[in-house]
Write a structure and sequence with these properties.
There is one protein chain. The protein has 109 residues and is an all-alpha fold. It is 55% helix and 0% strand. It has one domain (8-90). It is built from six helices and no strands. Helix 1 (8-18) packs antiparallel against helix 3 and helix 2 crosses helix 3. The longest helix is centred in the middle third of the chain and has 15 residues, at 61-75. The chain is globular. The chain starts with 7 loop residues before the first helix and ends in a 19-residue tail after the last helix.
Length: 109
């Protein structure tokens, strides 16, 4: 997967190019209103090219979404830890040995 780098300059450039807003796209995906346009836009916000997005999308939309949220969490834009494990469970991508969540929260399957 492409290592997304969410920094202010990448966000500004992508918002200008796509005429979309970063936080609005994140909210839509969080509400499971997922579109390819939003996913590609968020990849651009992370410094990726269309080719990077296409390559990762071959691995599945769910992996792309998790990659985005892991990078957003790492960048700290949302000011709190995301429960990545809960997101993986919501997208049916659980691994019993996965410990990628930083929040320590658990959810019932």
């Amino acid at each position: 997967m492409f290592k997304l780098d969410f920094k202010a300059s990448n966000l500004r450039n992508a918002e200008k190019e796509y005429n979309l807003a970063f936080f609005e796209a994140i909210m839509r995906i969080g509400q499971r209103q997922i579109s390819a346009t939003d996913l590609m836009f968020l990849y651009a916000c992370g410094g990726a090219t269309t080719e990077d997005f296409d390559k990762d999308f071959k691995d599945g939309m769910q992996k792309v979404v998790i990659n985005i949220f892991e990078a957003v969490d790492e960048a700290g834009f949302l000011g709190q830890d995301l429960d990545i494990q809960a997101m993986k469970e919501a997208f049916g991508m659980t691994d019993k040995n996965d410990s990628s969540t930083k929040s320590g929260k658990t959810t019932k399957a």
